[in-house]
Design brief:
Elements: E1 30-31, H1 32-45, H2 53-63, H3 67-77, E2 80-81, E3 88-90, E4 96-98, E5 110-111
Parallel strand pairs: 1-5
Antiparallel strand pairs: 2-3, 3-4
Helix pairs in contact: 2-3
Length: 114
């Protein structure tokens, strides 16, 4: 039996539904190419933060997919979603995975490339 604020548990059969992150603003206006570079740098270094590479790969695929496919990806990979926007997740062994908002959605102050 879990409490109201508990995270997803495999046994309860009620996984947390993924949703889009809330709108956010980068500390300064950013171009699409700069955003892509930030994302690539994050994903290239993410496995060094700990956790398993296959979970990082699944989280990347989910971050780049539409919500329905993202839900299927995290469910099949055994990812436990703490925050519905995927900013905080765990694997079945309890390793924590934190994703910055810039890999999950675009900022409100995205500007055109020159």
């Amino acid at each position: 039996m879990g409490c109201v604020g508990s995270s997803q548990a495999k046994a309860d059969g009620n996984p947390k539904k993924i949703c889009k992150p809330k709108p956010w603003k980068h500390h300064q206006p950013i171009t699409k190419s700069e955003l892509i570079q930030l994302r690539d740098e994050f994903w290239d270094t993410a496995p060094h933060y700990g956790g398993r590479k296959e979970i990082w790969d699944a989280l990347r695929a989910a971050a780049e997919a539409d919500l329905t496919l993202a839900q299927a990806i995290v469910d099949s990979a055994g990812v436990i979603v703490q925050n519905a926007d995927l900013t905080v997740c765990y694997d079945e062994r309890g390793a924590k995975y934190e994703l910055p908002k810039y890999v999950l959605s675009e900022p409100t102050n995205l500007i055109q490339d020159n």
